């Protein structure tokens, strides 16, 4: 097993493959050998597709040898969250009900990566139907955080977070309805980007809540996230929610220059009830950005006081509608935690849902106003350090508070507004990563990525590595 090769980012690996210093077959064999070992500790994979991965790696090698190099993902092994469809392959949603479900077609994002030459190594574990944040599955077992195997990796895209952090995939995709890309990315010390709603197609991705769902990159580096977004973004006639707006080459201009960048801080909501260990790291990074020439300004978003109720009323109502028939026919086939949530969702009235959409509209107006005054808004991604697997409470300044409620406090507003939001590692506390969240204007992902690059260049994790890294 070549440890040094496993630890490469996608952009680093792509350079080696393009210049034929390593072959896709060599890279794929190496990571498959490692997955067999690492997955016993992380449980990040639901399915490992070794035979088809090696076949595709041989095809990629032949294409590159013939001079038909397709770009940064050509020959690169990737695994995706198991609610993203692979045509003619089982896609479980980490559920019992869909345990043998075989979609006919690829998701649009799968097809785009396939066309780009990616080598798929398998499907990654997740919270059942993407509705949860600890990734402790009654059907497929708990995923373990590579920084501390006793800790949760975050969810619902916890398998993706753990796989990227432990180097058992070079990058991945997650889905995000209230924070499910950013929460595990923060907890696992990687970069996670929820693009603007409409930037990336959701066709062929099993829904949790139609109006809140997003698909986006989970990556080892900002450049990898930028490369992934460039590949998967764009209008899709199969998804009427996609926007017909230009897609940038997000790597171009990615230099970390933040001189003159206007950073918004909302103290009343995004720095309220934050664990001191987390808060210090986030404020230190903001101060570092100021030293690089960024300007910090306070912003007011009063409607945030309604955000948590609005997120729950919207997501629970929509999710319960999606699963209503199965809840009637086979309720005991759901995990107990999400069965309770879907039952709870049935209690919201039409009035509740419509009032939530009114609050949501006000949030959009106020975020737009704030982002007319600043370029980005910076917050903690999570207000606490990752708890132990099985805990339903988390510690914030010595007080035990509800895990789920506090997990989505800072991530949920960006799903309600549809604005892009990115988390980047900002430091370590007690051996656990702390993520910094950057929120920006619609379709302005380039600014978020470049701000994140400035933080990444500070090397906030130092030389520390996950204990479950190779």
Describe it:
Helix 5 (108-115) links the parallel strand 2 (77-81) and strand 3. The N and C termini lie close together (9 Å). The protein is an alpha+beta fold and 470 residues long. The mean pLDDT is 97. The protein contains 17 helices and 15 strands. An eight-stranded mixed β-sheet has the order 6-8-7-14-15-11-9-10. A three-stranded mixed β-sheet has the order 1-3-2. The chain has helices at 3-6, 10-18, 24-42, 50-65, 108-115, 158-165, 182-188, 222-232, 267-270, 276-291, 307-322, 324-329, 336-345, 350-373, 403-407, 412-417, 445-456; strands spanning 45-48, 77-81, 119-124, 136-137, 141-142, 171-176, 191-194, 214-219, 262-265, 295-298, 376-380, 393-396, 399-402, 421-429, 432-440. Helix 3 runs antiparallel to helix 4 and helix 6 runs parallel beside helix 7.
List the helices and strands and how they pair.
Blueprint: H1 3-6, H2 10-18, H3 24-42, E1 45-48, H4 50-65, E2 77-81, H5 108-115, E3 119-124, E4 136-137, E5 141-142, H6 158-165, E6 171-176, H7 182-188, E7 191-194, E8 214-219, H8 222-232, E9 262-265, H9 267-270, H10 276-291, E10 295-298, H11 307-322, H12 324-329, H13 336-345, H14 350-373, E11 376-380, E12 393-396, E13 399-402, H15 403-407, H16 412-417, E14 421-429, E15 432-440, H17 445-456
Helix pairs in contact: 3-4, 6-7, 8-17, 11-13, 11-14
- Structural category: alpha+beta
Biggest sheet features? 8 strands, mixed
Average pLDDT number: 97
Secondary structure: number of strands:
15
Give the N-to-C terminal Cα separation: 9 Å
pLDDT < 50 runs, ≥5 residues: none
Percent helix among the residues? 25-40%
- How are the strands of the largest sheet arranged? 6-8-7-14-15-11-9-10
Q: C-alpha Rg, in Å?
A: 21 Å
Shape: globular
Percent in strands: 15-25%
User: What is the count of DSSP helices, taking H or I runs of 4+ residues?
Assistant: 17
């Amino acid at each position: 097993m070549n440890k040094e090769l496993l630890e490469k980012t996608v952009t680093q690996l792509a350079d080696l493959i393009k210049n034929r210093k390593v072959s896709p077959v060599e890279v794929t064999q190496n990571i498959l050998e490692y997955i067999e070992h690492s997955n016993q500790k992380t449980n990040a994979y639901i399915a490992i597709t070794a035979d088809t991965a090696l076949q595709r790696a041989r095809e990629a090698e032949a294409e590159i040898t013939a001079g038909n190099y397709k770009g940064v993902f050509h020959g690169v092994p990737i695994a995706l969250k198991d609610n993203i469809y692979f045509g003619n392959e089982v896609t479980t949603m980490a559920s019992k009900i869909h345990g043998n479900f075989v979609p006919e077609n690829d998701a649009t994002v799968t097809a785009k990566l396939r066309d780009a030459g990616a080598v798929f190594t398998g499907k990654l574990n997740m919270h059942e139907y993407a509705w949860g944040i600890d990734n402790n599955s009654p059907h497929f077992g708990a995923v373990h955080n590579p920084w501390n195997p006793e800790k949760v990796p975050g969810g619902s895209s916890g398998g993706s977070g753990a796989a990227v952090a432990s180097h058992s995939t070079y990058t991945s995709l997650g889905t995000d309805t209230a924070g499910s890309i950013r929460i595990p990315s923060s907890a696992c010390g990687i970069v996670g980007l929820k693009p603007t709603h409409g930037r990336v197609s959701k066709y062929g991705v099993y829904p949790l809540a139609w109006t809140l769902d997003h698909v986006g990159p989970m990556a080892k580096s900002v450049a990898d996230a930028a490369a992934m977004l460039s590949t998967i973004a764009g209008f899709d006639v199969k998804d009427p929610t996609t926007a017909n707006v230009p897609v940038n080459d997000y790597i171009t201009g990615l230099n970390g220059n933040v001189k003159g960048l206007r950073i918004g801080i909302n103290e009343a909501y995004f720095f309220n009830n934050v664990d001191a260990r987390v808060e210090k790291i986030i404020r230190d990074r903001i101060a570092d950005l100021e030293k690089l020439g960024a300007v910090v300004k306070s912003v007011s978003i009063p409607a945030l006081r309604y955000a948590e109720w609005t997120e729950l009323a919207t997501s629970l109502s929509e999710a319960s509608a999606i699963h209503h028939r199965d809840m009637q026919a086979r309720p005991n086939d759901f995990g107990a935690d999400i069965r309770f949530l879907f039952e709870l969702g049935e209690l919201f009235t039409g009035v509740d849902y419509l009032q939530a959409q009114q609050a949501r509209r006000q949030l959009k107006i106020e975020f737009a106003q704030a982002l007319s005054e600043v370029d980005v808004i910076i917050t903690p991604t999570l207000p606490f350090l990752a708890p132990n697997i099985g805990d339903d409470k988390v510690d914030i300044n010595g007080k035990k508070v509800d895990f789920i409620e506090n997990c989505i406090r800072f991530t949920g507003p960006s799903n309600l507004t549809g604005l892009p939001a990115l988390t980047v590692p900002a430091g370590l506390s007690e051996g656990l990563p702390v993520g910094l969240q950057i929120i920006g204007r619609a379709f302005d992902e380039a600014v978020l990525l470049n701000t994140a690059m400035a933080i990444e260049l500070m090397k906030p994790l130092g030389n520390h590595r996950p204990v479950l890294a190779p």
